[in-house]
Amino acid sequence: MASPSTRRFPARRTAVWLLILLIPASVLAGVVFGSVRIPIADALGALFGSEADGSSAPFRAIVTAIRLPRILLGLLVGTALAVSGAAMQGVFRNPLASPYILGIAGGASAGAALVIHLAPKVPYLLPLGAFVGGAVAVAIVYGLSRGRDRRTSIFTLILSGVAVGALFSAVTSLLIFLASTGERLSDILFWIMGGLGRGDWLSVVVLAPIVAIGTGAVFFFARDLNAMATGEEGAFHLGVDPDIVSRWLLAITTVLTSAAVAMAGTIGFVGLVIPHVMRLIVGPDHRVLIPASALAGASFLVWSDLAARMIAAPAELPVGVITAFLGAPFFLFLLKTRGRDL
Amino acid sequence: MHITIEGLSFAYPAGPRALHDIDLVATGAEVLALVGPNGSGKSTLLKLVSGILRPTAGTIHLGRDAVGDLSVRRLARRLAFVSQERPLGFDFSVREVVAMGRTAHRGRFSRETEADRRAIGEAMVAADIERLADRSIRAVSGGERQRVFLATALAQQPAILLLDEPTNHLDPAHQVRFLTIVGGSADAGMTVVMAMHDLTLAAQSTTRTALLSRGRIVAVDRTDRALTAEQLRSVFGIDIAAGTDNASGVRYVVPIPPALANRGRT
Fold it and tell me: Which one of A207, B11, B27, B120 has the fewest beta carbons within 10 angstroms of its own beta carbon?
């Protein structure tokens, strides 16, 4: 199939295959490296061998109880953020859109901070509070920007997103100020900066179906997102109802992003930069861009988490610091070199 | 396919009425011009016919079906729209943009069929943009870009083509080329309705003209009978020179600056 895009983006096919192969490589690297270096043979033994073949038990314990769930959580959160970012950039026709554009980060942070403040000991309440906070923020933003004619203006959406996000951030700041113990303070801060340190099998099991279904659902709208690039009226004339598409995608990405944020805090830049970079490599067609972003986001977050664990070992940096340090300069570079063609 | 408009009125929410009691029929193989001052309702009328806006009163039928009864998808198979300028969010190739015209004809995940490829190819030939196929839509000139969007509309294989001041940003050569392509589509049986400001272009490239003023249709007639100095003076409020160039036989319709018009009268 010699479509023009493969001519304009010759690396498209190769890139997708490399991204697929990068996933097992990332998992293996994540398993091998860490505060304790695990030999590759033992790592593979722990991943694929049976209990009986005697690969060393302590390594096996580290891999299955600590590293593997953390890595899988990284893959899931990275996928969710990158796919949500690609969808939001498509809906808003703006490459500067991120999954947090409608105030999810602010809402989720406030929800988490509230839980840490009021009921820090109740199990599972923290991710639930974050999820609800994020969803509530989007619901407010969406409700505010729905006009009397029951249509939603994208411009109003963005503005309300900024305003509501700021309001929730103020709530979070207040809770930080009121935090009575150092432990609560660091809990809130770690959560705002984002990290995979809470990753356990339960979070993986909860998140996996959400990310699988959510990613599939976004991909379902890939063709419509292409049509949306011609503007709302343009999409309408091509046979795609822009109101229906954006409403569904807002709902899907809200669930995807809120769920990811509930497990790992508000990790920045993955959802902004990954779809962007993928667009440069595989082109703007969402039918390729969305799967490519999913794969790249997954690997990127696992490697970032690896760096977060290694750089200041035995201390652990919040992974959001790493993604920001990698993402922000790169983004500025794009802005500078590609200017308004971004 | 006929466009039949009966008793159409429209008001924007919380605004004054934009269109009053419009009756208008457009048929296949003609180019109908909508001519009138800014704010006379040309664009609003096109948006109503295309289904973007819903009438406050009255009906619009495309063929036998009321616009409001057609799904967005079925509407797009029947009717295409070329606007003044369209934003394009991302770095799609020219061919990808033209292929978007097939959206309403294709399954969500299906690959291009032979019919799709033929429609896209023919549209690109008609719009004379084949050599641009692999270029980025951001890397083509304004005139080429407008032809790309015309090709996208033609790839929809619509029975009805609506254009809202499509030649506004084009130089004279591109204007004429663009309208020649549009005329060819009408010759092939399409119903073409086009809002225009350039009266000379309207005179040259359309078969019938509807004159609009303040949301009402003032006259509908063969273009050469509609675009007369008297009619245009009553609609635009300034003097207009209309005539035929003896050498080429081309009709021209141009506004006369008030200072010159007064001199002519005295």
Answer: B27
ipTM confidence: 0.92
**pLDDT confidence of residue A222:** 96
Interface-testing mutation among A151, A236, A238, with chain B (most B C-beta atoms within 10 A): A238
Element (H, E) at B6: strand B3-11
Task: Yes or no: say if B94 and B146 are a contact pair by the CB < 8 Å rule.
Answer: no
For A332, the domain range is: 8-341
Does residue A3 lie within any of the structural domains? no
Q: A239 and B138 in contact by Cβ < 8 A?
A: no
For residue B105, give the DSSP letter.
G
With bands split at pLDDT 50, 70 and 90, how would you rate the model's confidence at B263? low
What's the pLDDT at A2? 41
Q: Is residue A212 part of a domain?
A: yes
Total domains present in chain A? 1
- Closest chain B residue to the Cα of A228, Cα to Cα: B89
In chain B, % of residues over pLDDT 90 = 61
Separation in Å, CA A177 to CA A76, A185, A195: 32, 9, 22
Q: Do A4 and B51 touch (CB under 8 A)?
A: no
CATH code of residue A226: 1.10.3470.10
Residue A27 has pLDDT above 90, yes or no: yes
Chain A hits for B156, CB-CB cut-off 8 Å, are 238
